[in-house]
Design brief:
Low-confidence stretches: 157-161
Structural class: mainly alpha
Largest sheet: none
CATH class: Mainly Alpha
Number of domains: 1
CATH architecture: Up-down Bundle
Organism: Amycolatopsis bullii
CATH superfamily: AhpD-like
Protein name: Carboxymuconolactone decarboxylase
Radius of gyration: 16 Å
Number of strands: 0
CATH topology: AhpD-like
Distance between the termini: 22 Å
Order of helices and strands: HHHHHHHH
Shape: globular
Number of helices: 8
Length: about 160
Amino acid sequence: MNIDIPAGKDPIGYVWGEMVPGIGIAASKFSLAVYEHTTLGLREFEAARLRIAQINGCVFCLDWRTERDGVKVEPEFADAVSEWRTTDRFDDRTRLAAEYAERYATDHHNLDDEFWKRMSASYSQQEIVELSMSLGAWLAFGRLNHVLGLDTVCVLPSHRS
């Protein structure tokens, strides 16, 4: 880890809850809201989330699979996300979610009219905003955890045993 954690403290709880409680607690609520309140389908949600995880290199995010009603994406899904341009495993919405995630994280200045026409043809305005906010959360918080070296000890609070 790139920050000091007192002995006996949970690294995530300490950093997100104790070190900067005015920011960390609000950030964790936003991060959890993305999962709790999404209206996006599981496959497009996971395609976007995993593409950000691949770009960030967040160990936990790469390993995590979102579950809905006992359903997760198939084990080969992450490999398909890496190959979003050519995979035959994705429908248009899922492919576009992976593309948007990549461009959002690496080339956001070049989201041109052609891209937005495709997005608007596949996603409602509400879904575009929701996906954009989700991408922002994953990019910021996955990168934060990776940069600070917390990604090898990260667990979502609602998934702690």
